[in-house]
Design brief:
Blueprint: H1 2-18, E1 24-25, E2 28-31, E3 34-35, E4 65-69, E5 75-76, E6 80-84, E7 91-92, H2 124-131, E8 134-135, H3 146-153, H4 158-161, H5 172-175, E9 180-181, H6 209-217, E10 218-219, H7 228-231, E11 235-237, H8 274-277, E12 278-280, H9 299-302, E13 306-308, H10 310-315, H11 332-337, E14 338-340, H12 346-364
Antiparallel strand pairs: 1-2, 2-3, 4-6, 4-7, 5-8, 9-10, 11-12, 13-14
Length: 365
């Protein structure tokens, strides 16, 4: 049984290590770069690139590059970019969206899909326009044939990704009541050969060109106008959504995150902008907060003479902010997540915690 749990934990660690930035965000699975059931557009540039799906690549030139997932100077703007095959210093991405035909590299997790005839070229067009990832001067990338670039650009919106909100530019009056032109969106790509923001009274729909352009070129309510109290019980403002340049790039803006309407609708789990502007508070079972991913309160957090309160951990008792604050013993989050043990050292507290953990495991088996 012990060896099973060791293997299980190793498997979890390996899986988490293999996750790429688009695989997980704020503890929620992403699908094609959309946040949960949110239907908002998700291209960093505004230009929508259609993924290639034909897996018979026998007539295509052999791939020269592959997508590399790395957190250093290799990529600009996003931690995935195209590099010459065999030169990625970290993880070769397995994300099908980044390959012609979705045909991943044999070096990627899962290898080359059985339905593919060979590895597809790294889709640098998708990575640049959809995700904002380009290859830096410190990496090696091969130039791809013009025919492959043209293939990647087929079906793209925005007049070949060239028509911008700042061409003209769009005016406050065109954006409508409660909205104004977003000067931070000057370089965002509109859907057609001109920018048309006339077709949407708010940002709730993105089903046609006008709604697309309104989402990118116009701004109404923004998350910097939302407070922790506005978010409601059990929520606080989402970190990184109120500061210019800090918002996740796939959510339309280089400034504070945009809400759907002229004002932000928050305060309950089903409010229209709740997932955009707010996040759940940390809990005793997730002491670092949902954005950091499931780390329960520890003996070290509780300090000398205290051990984790396993009942509070099991119940998922809320802390007071984005992360649990254990600074004041016996007060606030410490009082909820920790319990006095009478021990005089961290070593002794650890022994008590281990014994309690063993008892809990035994009860579950």
């Amino acid at each position: 049984m012990k060896s099973f749990f060791v293997c299980f934990l190793v498997a979890i660690a390996a899986s988490a290590h293999a996750m790429e930035p688009e695989d997980f965000q704020d503890g929620r699975r992403l699908a094609h770069h959309q946040v949960e059931d949110d239907t908002r557009l998700t291209s960093v540039s505004g230009c929508m690139i259609t993924e290639t799906v034909d897996k018979d690549l026998s007539a295509e030139p052999d791939a020269l590059n592959e997508p590399c997932y790395v957190h250093d100077a290799v990529c600009n703007g996003y931690p995935v970019c195209c590099v010459a095959i065999g030169t990625c210093p970290a993880t070769v991405s397995s994300n099908a969206l980044y390959y012609d035909g979705g045909c991943a590299s044999p070096s990627a997790t899962g290898g080359l899909p059985a339905s593919c005839t060979k590895q597809g070229e790294c889709n640098e067009v998708y990575l640049e326009y959809m995700m904002g990832g380009t290859t830096s001067q410190y990496a090696t990338k091969n130039d791809i044939p013009a025919s492959v670039t043209s293939k990647f650009m087929q079906g793209s919106t925005g007049n070949g990704c060239t028509t911008k909100c700042g061409d003209g530019p769009v005016t406050d009056a065109e954006c409508g009541t409660g909205f104004s032109y977003d000067p931070l969106a000057a370089d965002k790509i509109c859907a057609g050969t001109t920018c048309d923001v006339s077709g949407s009274a708010d940002h709730s729909s993105t089903t046609d060109f006008a709604n697309h352009d309104h989402r990118y070129c116009c701004v109404g309510g923004t998350c910097d106008q939302v407070t922790d109290e506005d978010c409601g019980d059990g929520y606080v403002t989402k970190e990184g959504t109120t500061t210019p340049g800090q918002a996740p790039k796939w959510l339309l803006t280089d400034g504070p995150m945009k809400c759907l309407g002229p004002t932000c609708d928050v305060g309950s789990a089903d409010a229209a902008d709740q997932k955009t502007c707010c996040q759940t508070v940390a809990t005793c079972a997730d002491a670092n907060g949902p954005a950091m991913g499931g780390v329960q309160v520890s003996v070290t957090d509780c300090g000398e003479g205290y051990v984790p309160n396993f009942e509070a951990i099991a119940a998922g008792t809320n802390c007071m902010g984005r992360a649990c604050d254990f600074g004041d013993k016996g007060e606030k989050d410490h009082a909820m997540c920790c319990t006095y043990s009478g021990a005089v050292s961290v070593t002794a507290s650890l022994a008590v915690a281990l014994a309690a953990g063993s008892a809990l495991v035994a009860a579950l088996l």
